[in-house]
Amino acid sequence: MRFLSAAHGFARVAALGTCLAIVGPAAKLAWSQGHASPDQASPDQANPGRFLADFNKRVTTKVLPNGLTLILCERPEAPVFSYFTIVDAGDANDPGGQSGIAHMFEHLAFKGTKDIGTTDYAAEKIALDKVEDAYAAYDTEYRKRVGRDEAKLKQLHDAFLDAQKDAEQYVIPNEFTEIADANGASGLNAETSLDATQYFWSMPANRLQLWAYMESDRIANPVPREFYKERDVVMEERRMRVDSNPIGRMVEQFLAAAYVAHPYHRPNVGWESELSQITATEAAAFHKIYYVPANITIAVVGDVKPGDMAMFEKYFGTIPAGPKPEEMTTVEPPQTAEKSVVIKEPTQPLYLEGYHRPDYRDPDDAVYDAIQDIFSNGRTSRLYRSLVRDQQIAAQAEGFSGFPGDKYPGLFAFFAVPDQGHTPQEMRAAIHKEIDKLKAADVSDEELAMFKTRARADLLRGLGDNEGLAQQLAIYQLRYGDWRELFNQLQKIDSVTKADIRRVANKVFVDTNRTYAMVEFEAPKPSAQQQSQAGAQ
Amino acid sequence: MRFLSAAHGFARVAALGTCLAIVGPAAKLAWSQGHASPDQASPDQANPGRFLADFNKRVTTKVLPNGLTLILCERPEAPVFSYFTIVDAGDANDPGGQSGIAHMFEHLAFKGTKDIGTTDYAAEKIALDKVEDAYAAYDTEYRKRVGRDEAKLKQLHDAFLDAQKDAEQYVIPNEFTEIADANGASGLNAETSLDATQYFWSMPANRLQLWAYMESDRIANPVPREFYKERDVVMEERRMRVDSNPIGRMVEQFLAAAYVAHPYHRPNVGWESELSQITATEAAAFHKIYYVPANITIAVVGDVKPGDMAMFEKYFGTIPAGPKPEEMTTVEPPQTAEKSVVIKEPTQPLYLEGYHRPDYRDPDDAVYDAIQDIFSNGRTSRLYRSLVRDQQIAAQAEGFSGFPGDKYPGLFAFFAVPDQGHTPQEMRAAIHKEIDKLKAADVSDEELAMFKTRARADLLRGLGDNEGLAQQLAIYQLRYGDWRELFNQLQKIDSVTKADIRRVANKVFVDTNRTYAMVEFEAPKPSAQQQSQAGAQ
């Protein structure tokens, strides 16, 4: 049910590589404002049946002959529209040895096309091909296991840098975003998770055709402009978010331990050695497989009319068709033994544990949401009350479902930050006590009722603005083949029972299904190398 | 230095998927006999210098225009020859989502070619293509995430079975091996590790041309005959060696935890979900990349003459050239925290721990061999004396280097089986005590001398028979670009010092570089599901 891990506080911090490629300083603000203050006509929360009937009238769906799915929703209250494009491929689809490649597309999203962002595409194309050739020559020498020639390597690297420089002369920096901005776009953005890649912005209604041109051109004709520069940006992002960040390091090790076969095992920003050697040629191969119309769903919401569909077809219909990518074969085998990673560092202690759960299609999906709500939603939630308020051992404590994704079976995870003087072991014991309570006794009527009220309200509130609605329509259409499933969620929330919660808790929260990672405080000590030198003397 | 994990007792048991695809009941016997009793002219162990000079006269090496490396070594003492083919690709090269695919080639090794093993290849080809089409149709439906049609799935599966049956009518079972056998071949075999795939057998000298024809044809023109049948055989092998075997299960979890990015993380037999969905089409793609002449080294040893090279060229020179496969980009990041897997089962307790070490090219490679020898070689070794003989807490205890491979950085691992009434925790403590001793004090003169004597003897003894020599020549040629490096090993062994051993032990055997797995005995208890049902009542 929760598609974007960003919907959750901790997950937002921890979702490695889910960086927002902010374009322009105002963009992020606009996006968060859009979500925080839906000031357009709100749906009738009291009557979802009427609400759905209303949507049925407003929404037009069409699968184009090339396989691309378009959803159009009329909301003429203001002369604006928002769109949301989902490419059904994220870093879980990264080919072996190329982790982080899906995420590169987020960084290349608005670099332009054959027509936008270049002074002379024909010449630039030749120059970019030369960059690839130069890089390949360098890379082959670099990877040699025996007999690498360092002088030659240096020469080849210089040649690569020269080729890059040559290609840069054709670049018109930021032309794509400047065109968008000049035409009133706001919230221009892209996001990558392990599950999918998303692109979105909002615009005045009279720029609908311009948008259709820009978005379809961007999808069909991306140019790997400044690819290696952008790869360096992502490397730096990795250093900041993972390598130099205690939570980032812990989460990376935690997921690597929790998953053995499934790609949720990998950080979506990529392993350093792989990310640092991704090429534009590999990215083009990824694009060819995954950026095909049959793998793309686009929702447009706002001051649009069913008659606009013909214009959309004109632009999006020309994207060349390709076979729908194969579904992933890999299934994580059942976990049968507790696993752990114990990090000892002179830093803030932390505790994180997770249990494998099924994917979003599971009939109990809403039950996991209920458990998350009861454990973590606000100051009345069980973990906050117990660990933070009453025992005063934790600065923060929460449980969250569907991490690091939920397209495939994710984890139900618990995260706690010990207060000064307390340990990760105490967090573990206190969390297990709360889990045992949930397994042993029914939740209260109030807790169940509060979950349902909040979940319904959250769901409906998210539809109040064009951005949120476009996102949800696209997601549900993609995930269930019908956006109307969105409204069945209300039914699913309503039908969760106390017995469901106990049953699921007893099924999932078992020792052999657990992986944990902890950071234990340890005073700085001599490095292994220093020890070794001492030992050798 | 140890290329085949099979060289070591435990590793042999634990090297998942390194199964011997035995062809004919006498084959395995012949192979092990060949290694156990070298009864041909033995090299002069006292004088390796003269030995090398002698080899320089006997060995001819040639890289064919298509990139294939051939090594020919004259040993005319008996009218026989042995050969060893290495394809420089193992299961570490399996593409993402296709773990186990390199190993499939071991199983398909002797199924025949376009000319051998078929009654009518033209018709069989058409039938095999239909098998692939039928399987692809079935597989697409099988993988559907939403809206899978079970009736259609059954129908497609039946169609696939029919297509398979149709293709089988052209198969002449075992024709390839029967031709080999009828011409006096012995030890026909194949092996796959994470690092490489190897093929070898021995034959009378007057069958040299027949061998060249069969081996070159087998490499160039493999036919995916009975592919899906063989996939089932491998699935069964996985069940036997991993899923139904406590050591196999533990080792799989151990490696998955010890490695996060590098493919040593994966079992070479493959993850069940991936192995069970590998296709012959994917195998053909793997073959096209990795079974190119530039990636293959063949050594032939025995009653052969330099003049035979021309005949070899005639056969092996016609294999179409292809680009040398790219070297792997992935490098395992440094481990910074202890990791563990704790399995609780009603079974024999076990303990396994490992520390990351560099690959075979490391200047300290022979030092790791020395440490292995001192810990584990026979009844005078430290672990045996301490854990088995003196403390009487273990039935078995050893340390071994380069697991699960050594082409890439492998592990130095320790394995112990507690005696009745003793625990894996005791094994851990006793092993750590021995490690601490090695870090704190120099080994004795006797220990160091015994290592050197044994290592030299092992190395030279391995060259005493044609099979062993062919293997070593091929391996060293592949790994260092020159088979003569084999003889530098003697120098490397000789130069290991006591200080080297302490230095390396202090560098590698540190807490943060350790992963451990243990099986703790636990009486059988109700399953999670039974608990859950109880909890829900």
Overview of this structure, please?
Two copies of one chain form a homodimer. In chain A, strand 9 and strand 10 (411-418) form a beta hairpin. Residues 1-45 of chain A have low confidence and may be disordered. In chain A, strands 1-2-6-3-5-4 form a six-stranded mixed β-sheet, with helices on both faces. Chain A has helices at residues 9-14, 27-36, 48-58, 101-108, 121-143, 150-168, 175-182, 208-220, 227-243, 246-258, 272-275, 280-290, 308-316, 365-376, 382-390, 424-440, 445-461, 466-480, 485-494, 498-508, 528-536; strands at residues 59-63, 69-74, 80-87, 186-192, 197-204, 296-302, 338-345, 350-356, 394-403, 411-418, 514-521. Chain A has a domain at 119-170. Helix content of chain A is 47%, strand content 15%. Chain A is of the alpha+beta class. The longest helix of chain A is centred in the first third of the chain and has 23 residues, at 121-143. In chain A, helix 15 (382-390) crosses helix 16 and helix 17 packs antiparallel against helix 19.
Amount of beta strand of chain A:
15-25%
* Helical stretch tally of chain A: 21
Largest protein interface, residues of each chain: A-B, 67 and 65 residues
State the major sheet of chain A: 6 strands, mixed
- Contiguous low-pLDDT stretches of chain A (5 residues minimum) are 1-45
Gyration radius over CA of chain A: 25 Å
Strand order of the largest sheet of chain A: 1-2-6-3-5-4
| Mean pLDDT reading of chain A | 89
Query: What's the β-strand tally of chain A?
Result: 11
Secondary-structure class of chain A? alpha+beta
Q: What is the percent of helical residues of chain A?
A: 40-55%
